[in-house]
Amino acid sequence: MTTGNTWHPVSLSHAIEPGTSAGTRLSGEDLVVWRDKSGGAHVWEDRCPHRGMRLSFGFVRGDHIACLYHGWQYDSGGQCRYIPAHPDLEVPKTIKVPVYLIEERAGMIWTALAADAGPLTVAADETGTVPVHSIYVDCSADAAAAALENSKLVPFSAARDAETKIAAVAPSLYAVSAGHDRLLVGFQSLSEQRTALHVVISGLPEVYQGSGQAHFLNWVLGLRYRIENPPKKVVPSPARAVAEAL
Ligand code: FES
After folding, report:
1. Closest ligand 1 atom to 68 CA
2. Do 10 and 22 contact (CB within 8 A), yes or no?
3. Do 70 and 142 fall within a single domain?
4. C-alpha span between 146 and 232 (Å, rounded)
5. Which of 18, 66, 157, 198 is the most buried (most CB within 10 A)?
6. Which residue among 46, 48, 80 has the greatest number of ligand 1 atoms within 8 angstroms of its CB, and so is best to mutate?
7. How far does residue 66's CA lie from ligand 1's centre (Å)?
């Protein structure tokens, strides 16, 4: 799940409001995810080219982001446009923040670290999505996916005994469904031993907003508990193993 030319979710869309930024990681790379005042989302390296301050600590000003330390301002393409200590300077084109590919699908912000990544294969969700929660767990993305595959979904709006179906619908994205309900779970590998899971309901806000979100938030918290407390393997005592072998 962690190669540079694969798309990964790095945030729930609703978590980054216009005019805000947040720091995150993907496969060990520090990233800033920010949204300009007109709603466009951006994913960049989280490092100011001047002295290395995290840009996620900075301020969004219209369609620019300003570094907290000395106020250098970068436009939405990552190009430095203004240096407060030298207001009349034409800023050299070489002062630029590395920017990454960006898409918004399934209620999540997606990026790929490699510029030559193919198109994101997550389809636009025709019915809309309702955000649930992002959880952070101390295990690899593969271990979290294995725990998800063994989980059961209690439906919100259908028969309580509906069968749970889990399928990988794209790299880093699983669909979990039971009855009429369907969740999408995006996997973000922060590092080899830390993973974020971003969860949305695939469905209409008028059906799920409020009590539906609360219902599936409980499911998400239960999933985190199961990931962090995997069932212990019972190791038979040597005497019992011998007895069972006879
Ligand atoms: S470190 Fe960012 S402006 Fe100086």
Report:
1. 2
2. no
3. no
4. 15
5. 198
6. 48
7. 9
In 3D space, the residue among 224, 167, 198, 188 whose CA is nearest the CA of residue 7 turns out to be: 188
Domain boundaries, position 56: 8-111
Relative to beta strand 8-12, strand 108-111 is antiparallel
Output the domain CATH number for residue 153.
Answer: 3.30.530.20
Provide mean pLDDT across the span 206-230: 93
pLDDT of residue 125: 75
* Same domain for 100 and 47: yes
Q: What letter represents residue 49's amino acid?
A: P
Q: Is the pLDDT of residue 180 over 70?
A: yes
Ligand 1 centre distance from Cα of residue 65 (Å): 12
Q: What is the number of structural domains in the chain?
A: 2
Instruction: At 63, list the tokens.
Output: 């369609």
pTM of the model: 0.91
pLDDT of residue 159: 73
Q: Which atom of ligand 1 is nearest to the CA of 52?
A: 1
* CATH code of the domain covering residue 13: 2.102.10.10
